[in-house]
Amino acid sequence: MESIDLLVLRTAHDWLSAGHRVLLATVARTWGSSPRPVGSMMALRGDGRVVGSVSGGCIEDDLIHRYTSAYGGPGMPGGLPEVVRYGVSADDAHRFGLPCGGTLELILEYEPSAHSLGQLLARLDSGSLVRRELGLKNGQVSLTPTRLPEQFSFDGQRMASTLGPGYRVLLIGAGALAEYLATMALFNGFKVSVCDPRPEYMDGWQVAGVEYIVGMPDDVVRAFCPDLRTCIVALSHDPKLDDLALLEALHGPAFYIGAIGSRRNSQLRRERLIEHFGETEASLKRLHGPIGIYIGSKTPAEIAVSVMAEILAAKNNVALPGEVSVSNAKRAQDDQILAS
Fold first, then answer.
1. Which residues neighbour 215 within 8 Å (Cβ) at sequence distance 6 or greater?
2. Would you say the pTM of this structure is higher than 0.70?
3. Which pLDDT does position 334 carry in this prediction?
4. Mean pLDDT of all residues belonging to the chain
C-alpha cells in the first residue's frame, strides 16, 4: 500500500497527464484543534473526484462545490497559488466540522505542473528524499535533494515540505506475529519486507503485498540499506537470527529497531550483545525490547497492535510515557503482588 502523500501526488500527475484540470490543496497552518496535520494534501479533479484529505470531509465538500462545475460551482480557476482559511468564526467552525476554536489554512495550487510532479515522483521512486518549495508570488516550484527530513514550513510567502520514499519495515522471522504486524504495517502505508532463512516458515506465509527476501539476516539488513524511514523488527525467537539482524541494524539510521522477547530474554540479549559482540549500554539505547506498549496483550494479533503503536509513536516523534512500557508496567504489577 502506497503512502497517502505519494498516492495524492501520483494521482494528481496522472490526472494532469490525461488532460484533466486539477487543484492541489495542502494544509499550511492550523490554530487550535484540527482534523489533519500541516503538510497533509488532497488533489481535486475538475469533475469532483478527490484523493487525499485536508479535514474530516466538510472542507473537501466545500472545495468541490467551489471549484468544480459538476457540483454547481463556477469551475476551477487558473492563476497563481492562493491561501484560503476555514473556521475563523464559531459559525464557520460548526459549518465545516472543525473542533471548537479550530482554524485551518490551505494553500491551493491551481493546475500544478505535470512535468514538475513527474520529476518529483521519479526522484521519490528512486529512493531519494526531496525538498519541494513553492513560491506563492510566482507559483514557481523547486525540487532539491536533501539527506535529512525537515519539518513542513510556511512563512506566508513560501511553502517547503520534505517528501521521501514511503516508510519501510523489515521483519526478521515469518511467524504468526509477523503476519499480523505486516498486515497492520501495510494498512499504515509501510512497504513491508520479510526475511527468514527457514523455508518451513516462508512457505506458509499468506500476506499479500509483502516482499520476500531469502538470506541470512545480517546480509539482508546490509543489502536493505536502512534509512531514516526504515524500521527493523526481529521476530524469529531464534537468537542466531535475531541477533545477527540487530547487530547490523544498530549501526545504521533506522528510526526504530526492536526485538520480540520477554523481559528476561530481552535482558539476556543485551548481556549477550555486550559480552560477545562488543556492544555497549550506549549503543543499545536504540534497541526496543520487550517491544510494544503495554495493553495486556496475549495473542499474536494483540501483540501486533501494541508493537505497531510503538512503531507509529517513534515514526511521529512521540515520546511515550514510561507507564506504557511493557517492562515498567509488568514491574509495577510485580511490585503490587509482592506488596499484597
1. 195, 197, 223
2. yes
3. 72
4. 88
